[in-house]
Specification:
The protein is built from four helices and four strands; from the N terminus they run αββββααα. By secondary structure, it is α+β, with helices and mostly antiparallel strands. A four-stranded antiparallel beta sheet has the order 2-1-3-4, with no helix packed on it. Helix 3 packs antiparallel against helix 4. The two termini are about 80 Å apart.
Length: about 220
């Protein structure tokens, strides 16, 4: 046997000896029973697998913790909280998007006021038109009602087509009134909407100015 073979065999023998000397890393667990008493062992009994347990190393230090299984009520509550958190996140993201649009669209509060007044003027024009149509519909209806009164005064039977005309004109008048009421609601909505826009715009501008002043103060303090 040559010198190289002897060295190779000696190296293999030493490596094997090291592995034989090293202790086997057996897992150790710590858990509590239903009475609160602490137990240790290399295996957790099946009836305690849904309880909190800890995995220990050879020095007794905790290397891993497994929480107890949640009850059905806890799982439902967790799911409910996750849904609430998701909805809140979506609301926050939508608010951020609206804020970006607000700041990108308008430069000053005056711009918002001009935009609001333009929309109000447009709706007021629709309201005036609706009022004119309603007055016209009322006049038509009054003429038909007077026609029916004259026919009845002459002791004659009112023709069916005139009754139908009366019903049609009554329905048309109610429709025009609903349209006008819709315009009035739209007007109120514009006032509320732009009131919110203006308040939020001023709030965002204040925050932006405060951040700018704080940044300038930091630069001054740093000697820039």
């Amino acid at each position: 046997m040559n010198k190289f073979s002897c060295k190779f065999l000696l190296s293999c023998f030493l490596c094997a000896s090291v592995f034989l000397v090293l202790p086997v890393q057996a897992k150790m667990y710590k858990w509590k029973d239903e009475n609160g008493q602490t137990h240790y062992g290399d295996k957790v009994p099946a009836r305690y697998l849904d309880k909190e347990r800890k995995e220990l190393n050879n020095q007794g230090a905790v290397v891993k913790k497994v929480d107890r299984a949640m009850t059905n009520e806890e799982r439902k509550e967790q799911k409910r909280q996750e849904v609430i958190a998701k909805e809140e996140m979506e609301v926050q993201e939508e608010q951020k998007r609206q804020d970006r649009v607000l700041l990108d669209t308008y430069t000053t509060e005056r711009d918002l006021i001009i935009a609001r007044d333009a929309r109000i003027d447009a709706v007021n024009s629709q309201i005036q038109l609706s009022e004119s149509i309603i007055e016209s519909a009322k006049s038509k209806l009054e003429r038909t009602e007077k026609q029916i009164e004259r026919i009845k005064a002459s002791k004659r039977e009112v023709p069916k087509d005139i009754h139908q005309k009366l019903e049609r004109e009554q329905q048309e008048l109610e429709t025009h009134k609903k349209v006008a009421a819709g315009h009035e609601k739209k007007l109120e909505a514009i006032e509320i909407q732009f009131g919110g826009y203006i308040a939020r715009f001023n709030e965002l501008k204040t925050i932006k100015d405060e951040r700018r002043k704080a940044a300038e103060e930091r630069r001054r303090n740093n000697g820039y």
